[in-house]
Each structure stands twice: as structure tokens, then as C-alpha cells.
Records
---
Amino acid sequence: MAEEEKAVLLTQAAYDKLKEELAWREGDYRDEITERIATARAEGDLSENGGYQAAREEQGKNEGRINELTVKLRNAKILKAPPKGKVGNGSLVTLELAGKEVQYVLGARDIAVATDYEVISPESPIGAAIMGAKAGSTVTYKTPTGREISVTIKEAKPLK
């Protein structure tokens, strides 16, 4: 029995970037790899032809990425970030952590393709701790080593 596919939460910008990558991989890049394989094949003995082997390996990686992107885009749900002041998937959060101010986007790592901010997962210890919190609040989370760390949410706003 096939495992149920999980929804992939993406911003519209991330969805568009992944769709653009898929089109490139299915089109121009696939054609380029096919040409390299044909050129290497024309050189003769394939068993000792490094160019042929490398092109075939690249073809396999490309086809794997095409399959991965196809599944992600099929299961994509465009997320609607919570309103300003509340932390949730798609929020750009400014945190005070260990005396420093840092900014992160809370969400799936696939969002990273469309932003210059670091992305933290809602399932990570810090992500789970800040999820649903409001700007101005201080939350505590446990690191994998068992250490407790406090973090203050300075600002939360929807990622544009």
C-alpha cells in the first residue's frame, strides 16, 4: 500500500521558483544532458568512457529531481501566513536569541528557494516553541542536548 503523500506548504514565490526549475529540468537541461550522452556515445567504447558515465549519472540525478519536484508541486498548498504579530508557517520572525537579534522564516525548507532568509522548521525545537506565539512574548525550548534556552519574539510578520 502506498504511503500517503504529505502536503507541502509553500509560499507563492517558492511554488513559482520550483515550477520554473521543473520546466528547466524537463526542457533545456534534459536536452543538454541528452546531447552530452550522444556525443560521448559517438566516441566509441562506453565501458571506459568517463564522459559517457558522467553524463548518464547526471541524467539519473536530473530525472530524480524532476520526480521530486513533480510530487512536491502536486502536493503543494500555498500557505497563508498568519497576521502581523502572530508566529506561524510563512512568518518572518525577528528573535532575540542569546543577546543577538536574528531573523528567520518559519516553514518548510522548500520555502528557502524564494527567500534570502534562513528557514527554520516548525518541527525543530525552536520552531515548535515559537509556533503560535505572539510578538513580545518570551518562550523557552529545549535543545537536543537538554539545555533550556529562552528566546524573545521581537516581531512577526507575513513573509512577502
Note: The chain has two domains: 8-78, 91-158.
---
Amino acid sequence: MEITPYYDKQMTCIHCQKKFNTTKIRKSTVKVVTTDSDFHPTYEGVNPLYYNVFVCEHCGLAFTEDFSTYFAPGTREALQSRICNHWQPHSFDGERTHNQAIQSYQLAIICGEIKKEKNVLLAGLALRTAWLYREQGKTDWEIRFLESARDKYVESYLQGDYQGLGMGELKILYLIGELSRKLGDIDMATRYFSRVLEKQRTSNETRIVQMTKEIWQEMREKKEKDIG
């Protein structure tokens, strides 16, 4: 008997406290084929990115496992007025389409901003939304969310709110550099890649350093070619 990649998980909404079902993907069935320079994975078969966001069918709150259960003063009321009061109850359970996945991320970004989640978390949601638009070939929308992700990562780095969430200093510097490069902001890309190379001796993130060196070389060759 073939094992399905999907399984149901019962969640409790962190806002309304009601229970709802969400679909998850078995890790044993996930196979990454390639990875882009901004860590976008291409999967063989089912795409687990579709199922990272939980959407409460009762109140409309969209959140991930990284969302805090803490609500800053006034944020519950803001969520109620801006999201919950306009929500038509419906479920995101079961297999999701590409568009449903994008909807779930966009809703999570709005909820995360209202709830005042950390910049690094909002940046990750924006980056994954950009990846989903990349898969659809919608370049304008991809760029829009890459820009949003880059700006949030900058805020996160300046505030230091990335610490303790599985994001090392070199990785966030690299991502700011690489997203800037993809956006055509070569000056900013150069600044942040330089910081990665400056800190390489005190870091054990050898993969990030190697990726930076390869991109640095690529940028230098392109610059020489453009000048020539």
C-alpha cells in the first residue's frame, strides 16, 4: 500500500482558541531536486511550501509554527476588526492549489504585521510568497515580494530580531545581498556581501561563505565585461 504524502493535523487557533484541521506533508516524502541562490527549493512531487501556513477556518487568522502565542496590547482587537469581522468561514484543509498557497501566505503576512511579529518572520513569509510567484512565472509579483523580504531582513538585521530563530548573522547578511542583487541593487548587494566576507574567519557557516565567494566572482566578471 502506497503511503500518501498528506496527513491531517488538528490545530488550536492562537487567536480564537477554536480547533480546526490542517493538512501537513510527511517529511519522508519530501525530495528537493534543486535549490536557487536565495534558497528557493524545487521539489519532486508535492510541494511542502503550500502547507506551511495554517488558516483558522473560524476566524481567518493565518499563522505558522513560528508565530508567537503572545499578543501585544491592542493587537487582538486590531485582528478582530481588520480580519475576523470580514472573514467568511471556510477551510484551507486538504490539498491546496498554487493560488490557495499564495493566498495563505499573503494572509499570514497581513496577520503577522497586525500582530507585530518579528521582522525576520515577516521577511521569510514574503520570500516564500516570491518563490511561489516565481514558480508561476509572475515576475512582477515575484519582484514585489522579493523587495518586501529584503527590506524586512534589513530591519531584522538592524534590530537583531533574527537571533534565536534559526537564522545566523551570515545567512541574513547573505540573503540581503542576494535579494538586492536579484533586484538590481548592486551597490547594496556589494555592501552586504562584503560584510559576509569580512566575518568569514569567525563563522562556521562555510556554505554561505562559499556561495558568497562564487557570486562575488560572478559580479566581478560581469562588471569587467560591462566596462570592457
Note: Residues 6-167 form one domain.
---
Amino acid sequence: MIELLIALATGLVVMSAVFETLSALDRRFRSQQTAMAATQDIRSGLEVWESEVRMAKGTGLLGGPALQAMGPASFEFTANLNGLATTLKSAALQGQTELNVDDARDWPSGKYVVLCSKMRCIDNRLARDGQRNRIVLAQPLTDAFPAGTDISVLNRVRYYVLPNQAGTVRLMRMVDGGANALIGNLKAARFSYFARSGAPAIDSASVALVRIEAESAATHLSVTKDIAIRSQL
């Protein structure tokens, strides 16, 4: 009987050790999975950020800078994210709102557009959905434009850092007023801006490079990305 009890006790000790080992392996596996997911989340988010910032361009009305606003927690720019572009098939006169174009299908109503000839660029907005050979502007043209003038859609893009109640932050992306979280569960994130000389940029007109620094709250992985941008159209 005593030998049986000793054997049972020994078995329980062995089983307890096995369960503890399995539990430790499970915690380690879950920790690794969390770290991998957090790392992939940052990498995927920054790939989107990088691709869109590279497309930043000035609004064209005054040949302005690519960035419309800048700060450590947010910045704004315009870009043709979906590559929607066409040309005038016939000359457009000052005061005209309906334009004859090559193809403007899938251009949504309300989007900002920029018309650029060799001499000048102006901004406007679509009053209706684009059609195959026509767009309708919300405001009459302030200048005349020749046939062959380039026309493209301008998306208004904003990236910003949003704190939450858990003490972490999210990198948010807003396009034409619609926002979504690009990267979640960050310990910190900030933007910096530099001129062509490498010195900190003093205003949006002098920005030649945008830097983002992001640190994961789950893994403490820190990532820094530098993206060069165009200052003019």
C-alpha cells in the first residue's frame, strides 16, 4: 500500500512538472505569436504610409507645398492615391463647368481635382460622378485651358497619432474624411520634418523629408522610416 502511494505521489509530481512545462511552452508560443503579429502590423502599416507619402504633391492653386499641415502628432497632404487622371479633349473656357475629357469613369462626386496646363494649375471639385467623356465642376473655371490639359483627382490625406485609455496610441489614417486605424497598440509614435540640407524644416514649404518613429507596446520594437517627398507639383 505504501509503495502504491509513493508511486501515485511520484506520478503526480511528474505530471505536474509536465503540465508546468507545457504551460510555459504555451505562454512562450503565445508571446511569440503576439510579437510576430505586432511586428507584422507595424511593417504592413508603414508600407501603406510610405507608399502614400511618396505620392504627396502640392495642391497646384499657388504651386504650394506638398504638406498642408505638419506637427509631431499629425500631418496632412494631398495625393492622387488611386491614379485617377485624364486630359481635356477640347479647350475649356473661363466660366465653364462642364468639361469634355478622355475618360473620367469611376471619379466620385465631391472629389477634389487639379487641372494643370504648361502655364498654370488650379483646383476645383466634382459636382457629379465622372462620366466617360465628361466631368462637371462645382465651381466655374477661373481661367481658360487648352486641349491636352492634364486633370487628376486629389485625395486629402491625414495621418495622426491617437492616444487611448489603455495608455497606448494608434497611428490613424484619414482619406477624404474617412478614418481608420493603420497601426494599433503602439507605445509611442511621432513625426519629424527635414529640409534638403538635413536641418529640421521650419515650415511646410521647406519640407523635403518626413520621418516617422514608432515603438510597439507589445515588443518594444522601435522602427524609424524616412520618406522623401516632392515640394511642388
Note: DSSP finds one helix and twelve strands in the chain.
---
Amino acid sequence: MNVVGIRERAEQLQDQLITWRRHLHKHPERSFQEKETAAFVAQVLRRLPGMVVTEQVGGYGVVAELAGKQGKTVVLRADMDALPIEEQLPHSFASIKQGTMHACGHDAHTAILLGAATILSERHQAGYRNGTVRFLFQPAEEKMDEAGKTGAIYMIEAGAMAGADIAFALHMCPWLRPNAIQVHSGASMASFDAFKGTITGSGGHGAYPHLGVDAIWLLSQVLPAIYGLTGRFASPLEPAVISIGQIHGGKANNVIPEIVEVEGTIRCYNDDVRKKLTEEVSNAFAVANVFGGEGACTVKRGEPALVNDSEAIALIKQAAHHLYPNDRIVTGPYGLGSEDFAHMAKTTKAAMFFLGCQPRHGEFDLHTPQFQIDEACLSKGAALMAGVCADALNKKE
């Protein structure tokens, strides 16, 4: 394994990684708004010898390349966007933007990839120039736009994955300490589809429900049908979950509403299950029709399931074993969250691993106002991304 000095160099960069991460954490930007974040990233990258930097790729995406001798093209990707969450922690580097926070660790992902870019740029200057390394700093992972697209799709359409032989990404893992990573071959994160349903009755006076069609009561018939789908139309052995996140109906306590709106998500690993559950959610809303109302549903298709390539996972495990031989490698799917790196994984061999970041004093879940990380994970992430890239470039077919 040709990774001599990578761990040591990553550890030397730890203070810089913390500085980068805290700057990004303090100045978060939401999906499709990452203008200043992208400018910061590009500024850092342009200081690195040998780096060719392109901005505004698929929106606010930044692409940087280290081009070497003829060989493979390895892609390393990080996402940059923050979430519409109000931070509740009194850090000196807490978000200064009200209602916006890096609650999913994308600030750490970006800092880690800048660290890996620094290490690989130095190796490039030292003569390690087999193949090409392409760094993708992606906007808009957390949100689809009106066209149903996220940043990964826009970057792919802009050519960011063209010619890629293999791609890697990482994600913060709040259930593991920084002395562990989690890996998994095959389906590892869920597909994501969002549904919006309407149930229409006739409304009426709260004193005379028998004179109209009560949309709230119709909803009470539809909900069990929705919640029962995963155990009946998908095998209990197949990971799948349907969740309802919003219900809106009514404006007064004595008025039966005419319309109730319901929004939720469908998540699973299997494409056949995905297709079936999408169909049956729409059918569940039609239950309202049996009782004199009208149910309708539309589904917006989101990310596919993230399917990790076994060869890419083997390279991640190899890099982890050599760089951190005393650390744990946990094997298992990452859950039913979704990740738009899945779109990139459909274009080439690819894998994402989860990097332990749990602070010593407790677990702080992703997408919560209290989310925080143990920054010891930063140098480790940079070393692993640089190491797996070096291994991928030098691997013989």
C-alpha cells in the first residue's frame, strides 16, 4: 500500500481542518444557496499546487482536478449545504445565520475533503502522479428543487462524473466514536420518495357532522391503510418505512374542514418494493372514496437507494486497516436515511462509508438542533479519503 506519511500528514493538518470546519459551521448556507461556501472552497483549492479548479458546476458546485499520468480517474465527493434548523448549542463558532445550521456534518465533510486535497496535492508534487484525482464539492444534497433534482443530479448533468472509474464519499456517523468506521456492500441507504395527498369532503358545522362529509374522519380511515402497507405489501424482511410528517386541515374548532392535506415519505432498499409502495400509498388515499369523499395522492420521486460497490468497499477497508490498524471496522447497512450520492453511484463503481464522530459526552443525532461532532474525526477522515484514493489509483486490475 503506497500511503506512507498520509496519516502523519493528516494529523499535522488537524488544526487547519478544525479552522476550516468551524468557519463553515459558523457561516452555513442552505441548499441551492451555497455561494459563499463555494467561493471559500475554491479559494482554498486554488492555493494547492497542481490543482485545476472550476466553479459553478451544476449550480454552486466546485470541481478540482489533479491530472497525472495516464490511468484511472478517482472521484472524491463532499456535500456543502446546511439545514433549516436553529442551532441550540453555545459554541464560539455557532451558526450566525438564524434558522440555518450544519446539523448533518456537511461542514466536516467539506473540511475533510479539503484536507484530502491538500495531502494529495503534496503527493502529486512529490511525483505520485498515476491517474487523475477529481474532487467534487457538491451543493444541494439535502433538498430537491421544483424540478425534482438535487445537487448530485445537476453536477452529473454538468459532466462532473464523466470518465470516472471509481468514486468515494464519507458521512458523519454519530453512533460511533472516531475510532471506528462503518461499511457495507450492496444497498446501504434507502431510496426516498415524497408523497402529498388530499382528502376532500364537504365540510360543515361541528354540531351537525351527519349533514356533510367530514374530511378529518375520512383521514382516520386512510391513516391505518397507509401505516399498514409496509407489513402487507412489502415483506417484513425488506427494510421499508412510510412516515407522515405533515397534516393540515381546519381553521376553527367548530367547523368541519372540507379538505385535509397530508405529506410524508416512502423509504426502502429494493426497487420492486419502492414501486409497489408508491402505488399502494395512492390506493390508500382512495379509501376516502368508499365513504363519500375523495382521496388523491401525488408522489415526487427522489433519490434511489445507495448501492455500495463491493470493490470500492474493499478498498475503504484496506485503507482503514493500514492507516488505523487498531480501529474498529463495523459492518452493516447505514439505515433508512437517503443520500443523493446514490445518483453518482449509478454512474460508476462507488461507495460511501460512515466515519465515527460521536463526542465523548453523548450521542447527538443528525438533523437535530444539538448535533455536534468530536473533531478528532477530521484528520482521520482526511487520511482515509486520501489513502483510499491512493490505493484506488495504484490498484492493478
Note: The domain at 6-188+305-394 is CATH 3.40.630.10 (Aminopeptidase).
